[in-house]
Structure formats: structure tokens, C-alpha cells
């Protein structure tokens, strides 16, 4: 009998082309996703070297970071953004790359478009010039965020140079309590293991909670693997995965489908395979979690208070708490609940999928966005936007006082016109709370689940969504 | 295309203190609106420097021209934007010495020939104290000897072997070697049904 292997090992071995002189592996990248921000320089490098795209049929593009979410007519008012979208169009046309443009009805955040189109598949390797490429790991793919020189490498050779990773299995057992979501699970994991806890690792997420999770929920967790320092995160493929993919435009069809499913089943980690590390977390121990500081590991439950540097466990922690409190203008030891907010942002590749808007729309009727709060809801893709319109979800948001926008990355990183102003506080369903992340050098971000964003939007302050929307323990 | 063999980097140094320095701080997203990397140097730590109102170490004239940057733990965490190491390099740095680096940043930096070496916290503090006492002090980051020399003293450095090998032997940009493997790539692709057909 063969030694049991993890999904990571199997996928790595199937894609390893050869060893390079420095000991790294030349790894085949089966699916390359590109967007307007990190690809134009790579195409420029390709031109300088006189090279062509090796596998245009395995390269897919969309536009997401710089697109306005309100006024979409071109040319865009920002000439730099306009130059970037034009460069992407030209590069895709020149190299024969499939491009989901604004007029396609399929445009969206690249990490939503891949899954929606069925391009993201189990057992594959995926690379994209964006760190949140880890999202695609939800399907049992090894999905790597890469830099622009590597985008060039993948364009030119469909491969990249990489050293293997260790694998840490993170099991979340039992059940989540009502009002606790996938976002809370990953914020809890990062809080527990630290923002650099995953350095050198691939995270394999498993356990009953992940078995029950939908693909949307698995994507939310895998998305933020990078915030925990892990290069990739994945969930072993199962029936939920196959059910999601069936019938998608790029999913295998007919007899191919059965062959594909059999193959996908075989790439899942074998029972009894070795891991470099195993962490077990009880689902019941996870509370609605929210960040108070300037990195995603600075999180607490909604019931907790902001930490006090005086009680820090080390000099380092004292410094980092002090720096974060000064930037966030929060009082040490004050409850996080009740912190006033100015902006509520529901969007990003972490939480702008259909189920995110559906869940909030269940509870929003009868509530209004608090006076003085700017609340924006930004579907991650045109497909999500279309389904929300069909189901009347957009109307629920509008009636509650949210601005309902067009698909894009929007205020997650504010490369488009959606930005915080001054030191505004934003309740955000996105993934990063770094200094200046949301477009104002003094802007302040509190990361939380979509329903917690809604609770903050309607009360004007950080609030417990379970109370605001009367969620009860199931009897 | 012969690449420079990067074995030693000698120059003055400047400390940018703090752990978890993320790539949004190194190069804020608004500077990413570009189709080439040429002008990125001016965006390096732009918001931190503005907030420091001239007091940021990079704006201190006594450190002007430094080619070695000293940092803390988890340097370069966050986004995969290569713009971050590009901005550091365009600003004039050729090496970063830190306690640890975030994974993607480290790979991106190596691929463009920016040496990222690890040193122990106490040793980085020693180096920082030495350059604070004498900003004209030259450090030598010696990848071959795996040490950082300054004056009569030295501290050890560590670096992932694949990266150290790549820099010292002038193969830090992997494109030439990757291109040589195109036949092998075809063979691997043929064994992958999602690439070559079910």
C-alpha cells in the first residue's frame, strides 16, 4: 500500500516539472488568472524579452481593482485607471486571452469570477498576481498569490519557481453558534495562530464545521489564509464542491464530468496522511469576532474589551498594542461594542458573494442605516449582482439606506473612487485593516462579518448582531 | 542575459522600526495605478513619511543614500504586490536585513535581486545602535560568508538556501532556466486532464 499523502503533496507532485539549480521546483501552473493592476508590467517585460504567452487558453482575465462601482461609463474619470483597463484589453486581445470585460455580464473580483465560471477546479494549481488567490483553495486547489515577475514567468512558461510548503491541518470541530460565520472562524484562527503563524505553511482546513460549510463559506476562510501568513489554504474537495461546479461554463461536461469527479475525489488528503502540524479548534468556542487594531490578528470577540498595553505579555506586544491604539484612537480597556462608525462597507473577495447578501437581507427589513453613516454594498461580481436583482435583495439594501453598487474590489483597497475620508471609522467585511488600507492615510478599519457590518450600519456603532437582529440559539 | 552575481552589498544603512510592516505601508495602493514600475521609488512609505512630518528615518538627510534597510519581524506582510520590493529597490536599497519576512514579499524581492537576509533581533538592535551612533558607518552584507560586517565587528546572517544560491550565482531571475524546461512542461501538462483535456 502506498504512503498516505495530503492533497498538497499530491497536487504538488502532479505539477512538478523538474528541480531547478537552486533546489526549487519548477511548478506547472494549470490556471493563470490576471487582472489590470499586476499584469501590465508583466506584459511589458514579456515584450522586452520578445516572448509570447505560453498557454493563452489557460489564462483568464478580468478587471476588478480600479473599476468605479457607480459611474461606469468610459473613459473613467481617473486617467490612470482608464489607462490600466485599456492596457489589459489590449494585452488580452494581442495574446488571445479570454477576458471577462465590463460588458460581459461576467466581470467581477477575479477570485469570484474563477469559481463562478467553473475555471477553479479541485486538484489544480492556480496563480494570480494577488495575494487573495488563496480563495480558490476552497475547491481543493493549490492557489498561489504571486508578484509581477512571477506573472511574467507564468505568462511566458506556464510555470514558476517555488519551494514546497509544510502543511498544517486546522480542524474546526462541532458546530458554530448562531450569529457566528465563516468570517469569524478565520478571524479567530488568525487571532489564535498569529499573522505570521502560517509562514512556510499551506493551511488545510477541515473538521465538521468545514464539512458543513457551503463553497461560499469555505472561500471566505481560504481567502484570509494569507492574513494568517500562510501562502495557501485549502479544503479537501467533496460533494459540496462537485455540486457547486456542476453545470458551470468551464466545468467538464457529460462523460468528462464523471471522469473529473473521480479524479477530484482522488486528490483529497488520504486518511492517516502525515501533517507537519495539527491544530484543533472547537466551533462552539468561536464568537462574533472583530478587529480593533492595524493587523488582522488584532481581533477580539464582540464581548471583549480593547486590550491594554499595561497588561501585554511582552515588550513587543506592548509596543504593537500601543501603536495600534494610537492609530485607531481607541481607549485601552474600553469595550469594542459601542465604538462609533462612519462608514459600513459590505463587499470584497472575502464577503461579497450571494450568500453574504442573502444572509444580511434576511435580517435587514425593518431596519434603517443610522443617520450620518454612509453604507455601501458592493457585490463582488456581475453574476452576484444579477441574482441579487432577481431576488429583490438589492431593493432590501436600498430600502434600508445602503447604496447598492456595481461589482469590483471597491473600498477594500480603495484603488477606485470608493475611499474613506480623514480618520473615518469603517465597519468592513473586507480582509485588511492595515494603516491607510481603505484609501485615507488616517482611515480606520474594523474587520467583521457581513451581519456585524449590517448591525453597525443600523446602529451607528459596533454592535452585537445577535442582539440587534434578535438571533437566538436554536432550541 | 547574464545577471549580476550578488554576493556582498556594502553601504550605509537606515532603520525602519516596527514589526509587521505591511506592503500597504511600504507602497500605498494609490501608487499601484501604473503600467510600469519606473516611478515607484517616490511612493516608498509615502503615508508613514507624511504622517511623520519629516521625522521619518527615510527623510532624515543623515541617512540619505543608504543602501541597506534594517527592519523588524514579518517584514512585507500583506499584499503580493511586487510594487513593494520594487519601490524599495527603486529608492536605492539593495538589501533588507530583518528578523523575518513574509513569504510572498521574500520571493518577490529575491526575483528582482533585492537581498532579504535574516538576523537575530539583538543583532539588528546592535546594528541599529551602531548606525545611530555613526550614520556614515558602512555595513557589508556578505551572503557568501553569511555575516554582516561593520567596523571591526560582525553579526551572523541567515538566508533561505535557494535564495542565497540564486543571488550569489546570478540566477535570481528564474526566467531563463524556466524557459529551458519547456519540453518537460509539455510532458507534465499532458498528464493533467484539466490542462490537456479530460
Number of helices of chain B: 9
Give the rounded overall mean pLDDT of chain B.
96
Name of the CATH superfamily of the largest domain in chain A:
Aconitase, domain 3
Oligomer: heterodimer
Radius of gyration of chain B: 18 Å
SS summary, helix count of chain A: 16
Unreliable sequence segments of chain B: none
Order of the strands making up the biggest sheet of chain B: 1-6-7-8
Mean pLDDT level of chain A: 97
CATH homologous superfamily identity of chain B: Aconitase, domain 4
Structural class of chain A: alpha/beta
What would you note in describing this structure?
- The complex is a heterodimer of chains A (475) and B (198).
- Helix content of chain A is 33%, strand content 17%.
- Chain A is built from 16 helices and 19 strands.
- Chain A has helices spanning 7-15, 40-49, 79-95, 110-117, 148-157, 182-193, 208-212, 215-223, 239-245, 254-267, 315-328, 354-363, 382-391, 393-399, 450-459, 465-468, and strands at 16-19, 25-28, 31-34, 59-62, 98-100, 125-128, 142-145, 159-162, 166-173, 201-206, 232-235, 277-282, 289-291, 299-301, 343-346, 374-377, 403-404, 425-428, 444-447.
- In chain A, β3 (31-34), α2 (40-49) and β4 (59-62) form a beta-alpha-beta unit.
- In chain A, α2 (40-49) packs across α5 (148-157) and α6 (182-193) runs parallel beside α8.
- Chain A is globular, with a radius of gyration of 22 Å.
- The N and C termini of chain A lie far apart (47 Å).
- Chain B has 198 residues and is α/β, with parallel strands linked by helices.
- The model of chain B has no long low-confidence stretch (mean pLDDT 96).
- Chain A: Residues 9-460 form the Aconitase/3-isopropylmalate dehydratase large subunit alpha/beta/alpha domain.
Keywords:
heterodimer; A: 475 residues; alpha/beta; Aconitase, domain 3; Aconitase, Domain 2; 3 domains; 5-stranded parallel beta sheet; 16 helices; B: Aconitase, domain 4; 4-stranded antiparallel beta sheet; iron-sulfur (chain A); 3-isopropylmalate dehydratase activity (chain A); metal ion binding (chain A); 4 iron, 4 sulfur cluster binding (chain A); Acoase/IPM_deHydtase_lsu_aba (chain A)
Amino acid at each position: 500500500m502506498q504512503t498516505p499523502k495530503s492533497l498538497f503533496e499530491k497536487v504538488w507532485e502532479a505539477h512538478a516539472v523538474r528541480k531547478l539549480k537552486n533546489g526549487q521546483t519548477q511548478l506547472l501552473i494549470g490556471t493563470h488568472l490576471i487582472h489590470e493592476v499586476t499584469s501590465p508590467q508583466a506584459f511589458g517585460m514579456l515584450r522586452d524579452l520578445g516572448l509570447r504567452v505560453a498557454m493563452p487558453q489557460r489564462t483568464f482575465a478580468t478587471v476588478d481593482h480600479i473599476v468605479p462601482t457607480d459611474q461606469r461609463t468610459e473613459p473613467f474619470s481617473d486617467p490612470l485607471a482608464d489607462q490600466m483597463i485599456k492596457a489589459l484589453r489590449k494585452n488580452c486581445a494581442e495574446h488571445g486571452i479570454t477576458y471577462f470585460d465590463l460588458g460581459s455580464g461576467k466581470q467581477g473580483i477575479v477570485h469570484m469570477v474563477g469559481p463562478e465560471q467553473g475555471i477553479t477546479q479541485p486538484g489544480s494549481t492556480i496563480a494570480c498576481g494577488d495575494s487573495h488567490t488563496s480563495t480558490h483553495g476552497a475547491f481543493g486547489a493549490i492557489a498561489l498569490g504571486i508578484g509581477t515577475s512571477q506573472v511574467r514567468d507564468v505568462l511566458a512558461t506556464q510555470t514558476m519557481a517555488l519551494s514546497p510548503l509544510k502543511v498544517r491541518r486546522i480542524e474546526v470541530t462541532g458546530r458554530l453558534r448562531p450569529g457566528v460565520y465563516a468570517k469569524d472562524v478565520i478571524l479567530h484562527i488568525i487571532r489564535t495562530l498569529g499573522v505570521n503563524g502560517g509562514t512556510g505553511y499551506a493551511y488545510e482546513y477541515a473538521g465538521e464545521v468545514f464539512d458543513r460549510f457551503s463553497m461560499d463559506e469555505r472561500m471566505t476562510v481560504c481567502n484570509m489564509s494569507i492574513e494568517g501568513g500562510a501562502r495557501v489554504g485549502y479544503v479537501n474537495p467533496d460533494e459540496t464542491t462537485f455540486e457547486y461546479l456542476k453545470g458551470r461554463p468551464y466545468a467538464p461536461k457529460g462523460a468528462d464530468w464523471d471522469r473529473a469527479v473521480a479524479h477530484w475525489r482522488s486528490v483529497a488528503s488520504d486518511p492517516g496522511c502525515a501533517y507537519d502540524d495539527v491544530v484543533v479548534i472547537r466551533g462552539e468556542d468561536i464568537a462574533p469576532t472583530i478587529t480593533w487594531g492595524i493587523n488582522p490578528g488584532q481581533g477580539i470577540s464582540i464581548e471583549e474589551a480593547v486590550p491594554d498595553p499595561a497588561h501585554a505579555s511582552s515588550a513587543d506586544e506592548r509596543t504593537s498594542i500601543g501603536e495600534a491604539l494610537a492609530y485607531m484612537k481607541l481607549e485601552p480597556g474600553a469595550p469594542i461594542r459601542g465604538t462609533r462608525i462612519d462608514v459600513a462597507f459590505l463587499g470584497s473577495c472575502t464577503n461579497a458573494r450571494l450568500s453574504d447578501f442573502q444572509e444580511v437581507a434576511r435580517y435587514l427589513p425593518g431596519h434603517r442605516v443610522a443617520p450620518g453613516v454612509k453604507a455601501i454594498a458592493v457585490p463582488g461580481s456581475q453574476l452576484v449582482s444579477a441574482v441579487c436583482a432577481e431576488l429583490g435583495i438589492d431593493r432590501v439594501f436600498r430600502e434600508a439606506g445602503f447604496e447598492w453598487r456595481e461589482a469590483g474590489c471597491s473600498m477594500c483597497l480603495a484603488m477606485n473612487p470608493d475611499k474613506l475620508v480623514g480618520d473615518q471609522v469603517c465597519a468592513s467585511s473586507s480582509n485588511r485593516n492595515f494603516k491607510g488600507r481603505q484609501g485615507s492615510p488616517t482611515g480606520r478599519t474594523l474587520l467583521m462579518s457581513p451581519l456585524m457590518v449590517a448591525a453597525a450600519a443600523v446602529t451607528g456603532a459596533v454592535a452585537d448582531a445577535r442582539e440587534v437582529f434578535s438571533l437566538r440559539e436554536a432550541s | 542575459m547574464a545577471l549580476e552575481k550578488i554576493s556582498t552589498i556594502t553601504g550605509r544603512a537606515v532603520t525602519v522600526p516596527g514589526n509587521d510592516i505591511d506592503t500597504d505601508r511600504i507602497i500605498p495602493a494609490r501608487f499601484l495605478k501604473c503600467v510600469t514600475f519606473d516611478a515607484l521609488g517616490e511612493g516608498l512609505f509615502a503615508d508613514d513619511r507624511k504622517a511623520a512630518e519629516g521625522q521619518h528615518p527615510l527623510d532624515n538627510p543623515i541617512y540619505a543614500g543608504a543602501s541597506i534597510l534594517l527592519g523588524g519581524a514579518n517584514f512585507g506582510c500583506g499584499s503580493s504586490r511586487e510594487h513593494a520590493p520594487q519601490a524599495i529597490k527603486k529608492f536605492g536599497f539593495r538589501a533588507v536585513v530583518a528578523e523575518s519576512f513574509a513569504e510572498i514579499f521574500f520571493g518577490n524581492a529575491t526575483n528582482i535581486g533585492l537581498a532579504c537576509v535574516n538576523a537575530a533581533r539583538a543583532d539588528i538592535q546592535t546594528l541599529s545602535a551602531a548606525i545611530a551612533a555613526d550614520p556614515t558607518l558602512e555595513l557589508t552584507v556578505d551572503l557568501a560568508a553569511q555575516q554582516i560586517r561593520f567596523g571591526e565587528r560582525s553579526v551572523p546572517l541567515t538566508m533561505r538556501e535557494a535564495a542565497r544560491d540564486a543571488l550569489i550565482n546570478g540566477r535570481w531571475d528564474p526566467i531563463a532556466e524556466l524557459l529551458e524546461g519547456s519540453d518537460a512542461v509539455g510532458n507534465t501538462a499532458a498528464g493533467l486532464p484539466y490542462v490537456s483535456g479530460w
